[in-house]
Design goal:
UDP-glycosyltransferase; two-stranded antiparallel ribbon; 9 strands; UDP-glycosyltransferase activity; glycosyltransferase; binds 2-acetamido-2-deoxy-beta-D-glucopyranose; Rossmann fold; alpha/beta; transferase; 313 residues; globular
Length: 313
C-alpha cells in the first residue's frame, strides 16, 4: 500500500512536471507572430530589411507586400515571403537617381535659408509625384479581390510599415490590423514632432543646423522650417492620401488622424546623435547595434540622421 501511495505520488509529480514543462515550452512554440510588412523603397528598405531579418531570426513569420515593379524589395528572400501587387508605376532608379543627385548637390553647398527654401519648394513637385506613384499600391490593392481574401484569411497579427510613404496606414485600417511604424519621417515631417510634445523653440528642426539652445533668430528660422514642412505635409495628405482613404475607407475617414494613430512607433534614431526631448510611451528607439552599423556606410547613413542632414533617412 505504501509503495502504491509512493508510486502514485511519483506519477503525480511526473504529471505535474510534464504539465509545467509543457507550459514553459508551448508559449515558445506559439510566440512567433505573423507580420505583414509594407516597406518603402531604396534606403528605407535597407534598414527595414535589417529589422525583418531580426524578426525572422526570433521566429516570427514575415510577409512583405511589394509591387510588381519593386526596385529593392526582391520577390525571393530566405527571411520573408513576398506578395506582389500589380501597379503601373513604382519608385525605381530612373525616378530616384536624379532627385538624389540634385539633393546632394544642394547639400554640398551652404545651408543658407534661401538655399533651403529653394530646395524644398523646388523639390516639392518631385515629392508629390513620388507620393502619387507610391499611393498606386494601396489604391490597387482593394480591387484585387483574390489578394484581399488571401490577406484576410492569413490572419496577420500586425502591419509594419515605414510611414515616410503614406500607404501603410490605409492598408492597416482596411484590414483592421494594429499598425507599427519603423519611422524617422512621417511623409515630409520629422515623425517625433507629430505626436510628442514639441515646443519648436527648444526642438531643433532637422536641416536647420540649430541645437537645443537657440538665439531669437534661430528660433524664427526653426519655426519657419517647421511651418514649411507642415504645409507640404498637409498638401500631400489632402491631395493624395485623403482621396485614397475616402475611396476605400468611407467619406468620414480622416487620413491625418489615421496616420498619427499608429499603435507603436519604432524610431530610427540614436540618443548619441539627437538632442534630448520629450517623447511618448508608444515611441521606442530602434538603435542599430555596432555589428549592423558596420554592414555598410549606406545603412549607417540611413540610421544616423543628424539634424543637419535629412537626406535619405
Ligand atoms: C506590372 O503590372 C502592370 C499592370 O498590370 C504591367 O503593366 C507591368 O508590365 C508589370 N510590370 C512588370 C515589370 O512586371
Amino acid at each position: 500500500f505504501v509503495l502504491g501511495l509512493f508510486l502514485c505520488c511519483v506519477m503525480r509529480l511526473v504529471c505535474c512536471c510534464s504539465a509545467l514543462l509543457l507550459l514553459v515550452l508551448t508559449p515558445r512554440v506559439c510566440q512567433g507572430g505573423k507580420i505583414l510588412v509594407l516597406p518603402g523603397e531604396g534606403s528605407h528598405w535597407v534598414n527595414m530589411d535589417i529589422v525583418l531579418q531580426a524578426l525572422h531570426s526570433r521566429g516570427h513569420s514575415v510577409t512583405v507586400m511589394r509591387s510588381n515593379k519593386s526596385w529593392y524589395v526582391k520577390e525571393k528572400a530566405p527571411h520573408y515571403n513576398a506578395i506582389t501587387v500589380q501597379v503601373e508605376r513604382s519608385l525605381d532608379e530612373s525616378f530616384v537617381a536624379p532627385i538624389v543627385s540634385e539633393t546632394i548637390a544642394f547639400e554640398r553647398g551652404s545651408l543658407a535659408l534661401t538655399n533651403y527654401l529653394y530646395v524644398t519648394i523646388g523639390m516639392f513637385g518631385r515629392f508629390r509625384e513620388a507620393h502619387e506613384i507610391v499611393s498606386e499600391l494601396p489604391s490597387a490593392l482593394p480591387d484585387n479581390t483574390e489578394l484581399v481574401t488571401w490577406v484576410k484569411d492569413s490572419k496577420f497579427d500586425l502591419l509594419l510599415t515605414d510611414p515616410c510613404w503614406g500607404g501603410g496606414a490605409i492598408v492597416a485600417k482596411y484590414f483592421n490590423l494594429p499598425l507599427v511604424y519603423n519611422v524617422r519621417w512621417l511623409l515630409i515631417m520629422e515623425a517625433h514632432l507629430a505626436i510628442a510634445p514639441s515646443p519648436i523653440s527648444y526642438i531643433p528642426i532637422t536641416l536647420s543646423g540649430n541645437t537645443d539652445k537657440m538665439t531669437y533668430l534661430q528660433r524664427v528660422k526653426n519655426m519657419m522650417l517647421h511651418i514649411i514642412s507642415q504645409v507640404q505635409n498637409n498638401i500631400i495628405i489632402r491631395d493624395i492620401y485623403q482621396k485614397v482613404c475616402e475611396k476605400y475607407l468611407g467619406p468620414d475617414c480622416d487620413y491625418y488622424q489615421l496616420m498619427i494613430d499608429a499603435d507603436i512607433w519604432l524610431l530610427r534614431t540614436d540618443f548619441v546623435f539627437d538632442y534630448p526631448r520629450p517623447t511618448m510611451p508608444n515611441m521606442l528607439t530602434l538603435i542599430p547595434n555596432t555589428k549592423e552599423i558596420k554592414v555598410s556606410l549606406f545603412v549607417m547613413f540611413s540610421f544616423v540622421c543628424l539634424p543637419r542632414h535629412r537626406l535619405w533617412c
